[in-house]
Amino acid sequence: MTAIRMVSSVLLLVLMQSGALCARRFRGGRNPQPRRAPPPPTYRADRSDTTESFPLDFTAVEENMDNFMTQVKNLAQSLYPCSAQKLDYDMKLNFLENTSVTCNDGSLAGYYLKESRGSRRWLIFLEGGWYCFNKENCDSRYDTMRRLMSSSKWPQTKTGTGILSPLPEENPHWWNANMVFIPYCSSDVWSGATAKTEQNGYAFMGSLIIQEVVKDLLNKGLDNAKVLLLAGSSAGGTGVLLNVDRVAEQLEGLGHTGIQVRGLSDSGWFLDNKQYHCTDCVDTVSCAPTETIKRGIKYWGGVVPERCRQAHQGEEWNCFFGYRVFPSIKSPVFVVQWLFDEAQLTVDNIQLTGQPVQEGQWRYIQNLGIELRNTLKDVPAMFAPACLSHEVITRNYWIDVQVKGTSLPRALHCWDRSLHDNRNNKAPPKGCPVHLIDSCPWPHCNPTCPTIRDQFTGQEMNVIQFLMHMGFDVQKMAQQQGMDPSKLLGMLSSGS
């Protein structure tokens, strides 16, 4: 039996590597070309040239010889047309079987699916995109961002990137999972359970959409899953915190007790802090975070995790803030959070464009990093770089950002291993950290942060230029210390 496994593993390794080479050839010549650059955001930081290699992940077939030939057959079939046509990597649109669960405007809700036959790992991703909290700003949202409220113009296919990518070079440990992308069309931070009526004009059914997607997927192979990772970014990241236990309870209630449900929350760990400047509550950007959620949860008919609801009776809005809801969550959750999140700074009325940042703003930004770091200190599994950015796990550059020498995909792989070892009463693997937080105190002191661009000129800014724009004179401080500015940045990044 051991010999068979060795031969099987070698054969599978050869096929997987061949498949990866073929895949790269049909993705616009990604090999030997470098990874495509991400679209220029408002602020992103220069990446270092450090890269990291990973072993291929055999979790999907380990100890499951019944599926081995299925895996080989599927890989062989994908290799056969390699020289003749483009391989199909896209996720395909499916509408919910339950037509009563809808987007805001009453159109059918749905999901995109790319199956990976033979794999027992499933990744369900919740899209982000802010929210609205009354009829006026929901009407405005419908006029300007209809894609986030209606399915009427959704494309038939969607290509996964980052942790949704089917390419091992871009997604080292989850590339062979069954991928599900749920578009955000409920504007309720994935919390609503209210149908459309003549009075309010909109449906808010985010929580129900997740439940119905899970139900539909059980007929497409999820019933045989070993691991289900519920992931999301921004509002989707908060949606993970609100729904991961509900999904686990749903599956358990349907008799699927063998599925391990986990959460991955990206850029959804918001603070209910005081704004830098208080303004009238007109929309989601000008309103204080607590006020928008207080109004929204009533307008949406929002539901929160039961244990959190009991802890905050009458003030259920608390459950939308990561550090308040996290202690009540039973399922394992990995938190990814920039210490200087752009969306958090936006709702706090900190503007980072135009004139250099004023001293009061600079102190506020530094304090935000301290506050966020304090709320994360008791989270067992997390990745928190000192960068000014928003969202990361579906970005092409997600493998490049590091905290203390460890990349995010590596940290997630270590988390997977630690959960597996815990279930088997094994000691956690050495040299495989899962609690990673930058100790340097200001934005982009980590040299692996994403690239920064000036909003007005579009030109890239190096870290020193950016910090000087933020009011911190790196050159002057380095001269005082008698060292090179880049060396100073390296020391700051390492926490020295």
UniProtKB/TrEMBL annotation:
Region feature Disordered, mapped onto this chain: 26-50
Signal sequence bounds: 1-22
Claim: Signal is one of the keywords in the record: yes
UniProt superkingdom: Eukaryota
Annotated GO MF terms: glycosylphosphatidylinositol phospholipase D activity; palmitoleyl hydrolase activity
Pfam families, A to Z: PAE (PF03283)
Keywords: Signal
One record GO biological process: negative regulation of canonical Wnt signaling pathway
Metal-binding listed as a keyword: no
PANTHER family: NOTUM-RELATED, PALMITOLEOYL-PROTEIN CARBOXYLESTERASE NOTUM
Family (UniProt): Belongs to the pectinacetylesterase family. Notum subfamily.
Record protein name field: Notum, palmitoleoyl-protein carboxylesterase a
Organism: Seriola lalandi dorsalis
Source lineage: Eukaryota, Metazoa, Chordata, Craniata, Vertebrata
